[in-house]
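INFO  loader      accepted 1 record
INFO  loader      residues=193
INFO  predictor   begin
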Amino acid sequence: MCDGNAVSPDTAREIGGIVEKGGATFVDGGIIGPPPVKPGSTRFYVSGAGAERIAKLLTAGALEALVVPGGPGAASAVKMAYASWTKGSSALLLAVCALASAEGVEDSLLREWKISQADLPARSEGAAKSNAKKAWRFIGEMEEIAATYAAAGLPDGFHQAAAEIYRRMEGYKDGPTPSLAEVLRALTPRRPA
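INFO  predictor   done
INFO  writer      dumping tokens
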């Protein structure tokens, strides 16, 4: 059995133990990238006793399979570390924009970003538009990342907060893609006047 869900290394090891206790071979996996349409865009990291075999099976198409040294949990650790940055930094960027909007200084922040962080205005728009419809999927992943940090003795609060950012966006799942302004309104609770 090969599991490719975005779970903490501890969760992967727990699943692996159950599978192996039942007599099957368990391979841990972590997917990074978009759906594999063209070669070179998507990697499937695998670890565990059967990882080499799974990697050979999966490299026939557009998906690239890479073996991570270590047993079950190693591939999940790669996924958790990678997503903690990509999805976590998007959540932080959206939270920063929501704070500026809530405090009425969004225009001033954007003006400063254009001077000192020229890529952030476009990245903010991109974070809202590309993540809003799938934010519901990221809630559990952020919680698994937080668990991964806690298990490593690192602070887990940032990714718990990222889970909350995505929880506030989950209503966009089935609707049209929202603007950045709409996402910021969803993120910011109504403040008393």
